[in-house]
Amino acid sequence: MATTDTTARLGGREWGVLLVLCGAIFLEGLDVSLMGVALPSIQADLGMTAGGLQWVISAYVLGYGGFMLLGGRAADLLGRRRVFLCWLAVFVAFSGLGGLAQDGWVLILARFVTGVSAAFLTPTGLSIITTTFDGPRRDRALLVYGGVGAAGFTLGMVAGGLLTAVGWRWVFFAPVALALLVLVASVRVIPRDTGHGGGRFDVAGAATATGGMLLLVLAIAEGAWPALVGGLALLAAFAVVERRAAEPLVRAGVLRVRGLVRVNLVALLFAGSFFGFQLVAVLYLQQVLGWSALETGLALLVSGVDAVLAPTLTPHLVRRFGLVRVMTAGLLSATAGYAWLLRIDEGWGYWQLFPSALLVGLALTLAYGPMTIVATTGVADAEQGLAGGLYNTSFQFGAALGVAGVTAVAALGDTPLEGYRLAALVPVAAGLPAALTASRGARRRSA
């Protein structure tokens, strides 16, 4: 990937488009991770049960994971600008509703619809980048975009602690303010397009895929076996429908694009490891060490190193070593960070946690942007929304699996500390296969 800085240089209008879309992906990452630190305060204020509180997270995951493929394909068929602006407005409305909620069910509803909006926004924003930029400028834009998205995940933990210290409702109101700014700017800078439909929408495919995704995410989040069986049955029906559809939601040929299946598997494993790590760290710091939400957020601040390094350092490393090698190095860094957490005990302080948080921040610096590029390379413009939907679906399913795995394993311990030590094995068990799978891709490319 030998490109010069001149060929990768972006123009003024291109920077405008990129900054708006970076604002949207930062907002999505922020919205996912803000909530974790605020949950105890939400439970106390609204009087929610532990089961009800779990639905604050599960509802978002259901909406996000269930509608991602549909969101990506809708962008291709209906027009990316139209879909982006519409669902960004929905995000503003329902995130604000969450902040105003006086009852648990209102908050859960708001989180579900916010998750649905993210399911449309995320693949649409990615497809706008991949169809607006080309060549070296495309790779540079995606590295910046991926780095900013990763920063949203890590800085959300810090911001969540700061906002919760003021009041948990600000965890909802702050994203609304940012989303409004992005919405106003988007109207001015996002290029117009007409979509690539020109025919019928695959209603049967959309219904079976979305239903199957919803049930599978429900099974993962709640451990519901009937939902797992139903989800698999609907996905089997989806495969049959797609083979017979004249204009399928997911064209089978797109899965034969070089490296696409592999990078989606890597994304699933990486997301599971990262969100599992994040949950173990937060619960350990608050429930074992007794740290406040603010202290927890500040302790994880170093993970936000990717906010600075991903847009600046990663492009140079990619030009020197290539996408897959840089991504693999990031995944190995993540695994080392997760393994460090296996040593937690009651006497730990900030400096004992520091290496783990730093290594995970470096992992996001190196891995997230290159994964995004590989996941959309070689796919036709008319299917970029679909490619983004597949990639983000993998990422979201991985996150749900990681959280569910950590929660289940932590319950096996006789004490909270013992449980979190055991649960720390989950990120390692997902992170190492992710690195090995990526390194296999690196060997094939160099062969």
Account of the 3D structure:
With 447 residues, this protein is mainly alpha-helical. The protein folds into 3 domains: 13-190, Growth Hormone, Chain: A, CATH 1.20.1250.20; 203-248; 256-439, MFS general substrate transporter like domains (Growth Hormone, Chain: A), CATH 1.20.1250.20. It is 81% helix and 0% strand. It is built from 16 helices and no strands. The chain has helices at 12-46, 50-78, 80-100, 104-132, 135-166, 170-189, 203-222, 225-244, 260-288, 293-299, 306-321, 323-340, 350-376, 384-410, 416-423, 425-446. The two termini are 16 Å apart.
CATH superfamily of the largest domain: MFS general substrate transporter like domains
Reading off the top of the CATH hierarchy, the class of the largest domain is best stated as: Mainly Alpha
What's the overall average pLDDT, rounded? 86
Question: What percentage of amino acids are in beta strands?
Answer: under 5%
Helical coverage, percent range: over 70%
For the largest beta-sheet, the strand count, sense and barrel status come to: none
| CATH architecture type of the largest domain | Up-down Bundle
What is the CA-CA span between the terminal residues? 16 Å
Q: What count of domains describes the coordinates?
A: 3
Quaternary structure type: single chain
Structural class: mainly alpha
Transmembrane segments: 17-40, 52-71, 83-102, 108-130, 142-164, 170-191, 203-221, 227-245, 265-285, 291-310, 322-342, 348-369, 390-413, 419-438
Keywords: Cell membrane, Membrane, Transmembrane, Transmembrane helix, Transport
Membrane topology: Multi-pass membrane protein
Pfam families: MFS_1
